[in-house]
Write a structure and sequence with these properties.
The complex is a heterodimer.
Chain A lengths: L2 E7 L7 H12 L3 E2 L10 E6 L2 H10 L3 E11 L2 H10 L1 H4 L8 E8 L5 H9 L17 E8 L19 E10 L4 H5 L15 H10 L7 E4 L8 H6 L3 E6 L2 H5 L8 H8 L6 E6 L13 E6 L10 E3 L7 H12 L12 E3 L2 H15 E14 L5 H5 L6 E10 L3 E10 L29 H6 L16
Parallel strand pairs in A: 5-6, 8-9, 8-11, 9-10, 11-14
Antiparallel strand pairs in A: 1-3, 1-4, 2-3, 4-7, 6-7, 12-13, 14-16, 15-16
Helix pairs in contact in A: 1-2
Chain B lengths: L3 H4 L17 E9 L6 H7 L5 H10 L15 H13 E9 L6 E5 L2 E2 L10
Antiparallel strand pairs in B: 1-2, 2-3, 3-4
Chain lengths: 466, 123
């Protein structure tokens, strides 16, 4: 029979909470029942699980979980709460006799004075716990959480008043969220090798969870860069292959022979799981066959700090230029000056569509594509994402990290087909085979970013606040 | 790096090179052996994608003859361990990979192969 559990979330990335819960439940293969209606913006959520062990698994792996408790009751006020808790006596009467315990009283968006904390604890006197109170190592911890409304941007007179909470929850602590400690472990500033486009630790961990990183799975990052996604994914046991059109990002500067990505992975003890790093343009890739990877996880360059590039030239060369090029190409080259082919920009909406088609080819059935897509918040519509999909690829999560006028969406797409599809870019023209009628908000994102997201503005400086 | 698992999944992708473009041949390969965690499920999962003959031939070129010529139908633990060593623990750090068909040279430097195509090799 399912039991109710109270999830306390960390105060960040609320849009990512539910996708993460679902992903980790799927990873471990247990059912998860979410409340209906379900508001991911509130920091407390009562979910149903079949076993206490499942609650522990969630708390050990979900980056956004602070703790999970067995749920005893909730209410708009303490009278309601206590009535609910009394009704659930069957859940807690086993602890009455001689279980050592401790109370914890906390609040979201508010702090409760010591004296009122004591009042709250004493109001639970009817539970008649006879065991020893043990503050250091109790057998059970009973947690009471008051949830106050969000006060950001409100008038001073609307600030929270002690005791006037939105909801109060009570339960027995099962497990503190231990995955949050990984955020500090993977801190970019403490990493042996990183670049200015490295992804922050918390988000890269969330991406690793979205792609169901697990021992023995094979994960591919086609825009490897400085390897931000490889470290958390390999930490969870996946084998990672990375490619990039620019090998310098993976190697790093300096004379050290070991590539930067491997030096950073060595720091996390996962260098042996970075299978290989390769330099090539993913739109002209040398993969011999499809159906190779369990997941593709990537942060495509979207042009603010570094733009996406692909092989080719912006303009085709004149016959004279072409002749000069071929002559240059045929001439012997010193070993320390490798040939660097010309590249041209890769427009974001085209890249995104290509990525989905490529993922359908390269992923195993049930495999996941997880990537970030920056977009203009005012112009964004859900259809932007749906028009990116192709047959056999299904959207399973779309979470916004909001930066105000723009944001980036973590898109998770699952391959729901086991049909064999033709090799994308098989004509080797590098041209996109998909065309879209709809113009999504993320099209020409770079230009929009530098124009300050002002509609119809043409000058680079239009959007700058004077 | 380059490990034989990756090598077995790569073929030449230059313009017009579509037959006999696999496996790429190693030249002047400098090999390092590095231990990796043995994960039998991972190796088993890879097998359907591995071209056995190419793997055995390439391993032999690099001086490892531990794999049987014919792919055995049953995979015992011993064989999985041998495969694990060949696929994941042999790293080609320097050298070249050459296409048997068009002779395109993919140089390997510090374990990273450069598989970018030149302008005239793309359509």
């Amino acid at each position: 029979m399912p039991t109710k559990y109270l999830v306390v979330f960390a105060q960040s990335h609320s849009d990512f909470r539910i996708p993460e819960l679902k992903s980790i439940a799927e990873l471990h293969g247990f059912p998860l029942h979410l409340p209906d209606p379900c508001d991911p913006n509130r920091p407390f959520m009562v979910i149903e699980l079949d076993q206490e062990e499942h609650a522990r698994l969630l708390a050990k792996r979900c980056i956004l979980i602070k703790s999970i408790s067995e749920f005893y009751g909730q209410g708009d006020n303490y009278d309601q709460l206590h009535a609910a808790v009394r009704k659930n006596e069957a859940l807690w009467e086993q602890y009455k006799q001689d279980t050592s315990f401790r109370f914890s009283v906390a609040a979201y968006n508010h702090s409760i004075t010591k004296s009122r904390q004591r009042e709250v604890m004493e109001s639970f006197g009817y539970m008649e716990f006879l065991g020893r109170i043990d503050l250091k190592s109790p057998t059970i911890v009973l947690g009471c959480y008051e949830e106050y409304g969000d006060t950001r941007g409100k008038e001073f007179s609307n600030k929270v008043v002690d005791g006037q909470f939105r909801q109060v929850y009570f339960g027995r602590l099962i497990e503190e969220g231990s995955a949050r400690a990984l955020i500090s472990r993977f801190d970019v500033k403490k990493r042996a090798y990183f670049g200015n486009t490295s992804m922050e630790a918390e988000i890269s961990l969330l991406m690793a969870n979205q792609c169901l990183a697990r021992p023995g799975s094979l994960v591919y990052d086609p825009f490897m860069g400085t390897g931000s996604m490889a470290y958390p994914t390999s930490h969870f046991g996946s084998f990672v292959v990375g490619s990039d059109i620019d090998g310098r990002q993976m190697r790093g500067k300096g004379k050290q022979p070991t590539p930067g990505v491997l030096r950073a992975a060595a720091q996390y003890g996962t260098a042996h799981r970075i299978v290989d790093l390769l330099t090539f343009d993913v739109t002209r890739n040398p993969w011999r066959c499809g159906g190779l990877f369990d997941a593709i996880v990537t942060d495509p360059p979207y042009g603010v700090r570094a733009g996406a590039k692909r092989l080719g030239r912006r303009r085709s060369p004149t016959p004279k230029q072409l002749e000069a090029y071929l002559e240059h190409q045929a001439a012997p080259r010193p070993a320390d000056q490798p040939y660097i082919p010309p590249t041209k920009p890769y427009e974001l909406s085209e890249l995104a569509r290509d990525l989905v088609v490529l993922a359908r080819y390269l992923l195993k059935p049930e495999g996941r594509l997880v990537f970030f897509l920056p977009t203009v918040n005012d112009e964004y519509e859900d259809v932007d994402i749906y028009t990116m999909l192709c047959e056999g690829m299904e959207l399973i999560a779309n979470s916004l990290q909001d930066f105000g006028s723009w944001g980036r969406r973590l898109v998770t797409i699952k391959k729901i087909t086991s049909d064999i599809y033709p090799i994308p870019f098989s004509d080797n023209s590098g041209q996109s085979q998909s065309t879209a009628q709809h113009e999504p908000a993320h099209k020409d994102f770079r230009e929009k970013y530098f124009q300050g997201f002002r509609k119809g503005s043409t000058s680079l400086y239009d959007g700058v606040v004077q | 790096m380059v490990r034989l698992i990756t090598h077995n999944l790569l073929s030449c992708h230059a313009k017009g090179c579509t037959t006999n473009n696999f496996p790429l041949q190693f030249k002047d390969a400098e090999i390092e052996h590095r231990e990796a965690d043995f994960n039998p499920e991972f190796i088993r999962g890879l097998l359907p994608k591995i071209e056995w003959k190419a793997l055995v031939d390439t391993a032999k070129e690099l001086g490892d003859t531990s794999l049987p010529y014919e792919q055995p139908e049953m995979m015992d633990d011993e064989l999985l361990k041998t495969l694990h060593h060949v696929l994941l623990e042999m790293h080609v750090e320097e050298g070249q990979m050459i296409c048997p068909n068009c002779n395109h040279v993919y140089p390997i430097s510090n374990g990273i192969p450069n598989m970018l195509l030149a302008e005239h090799e793309i359509a």
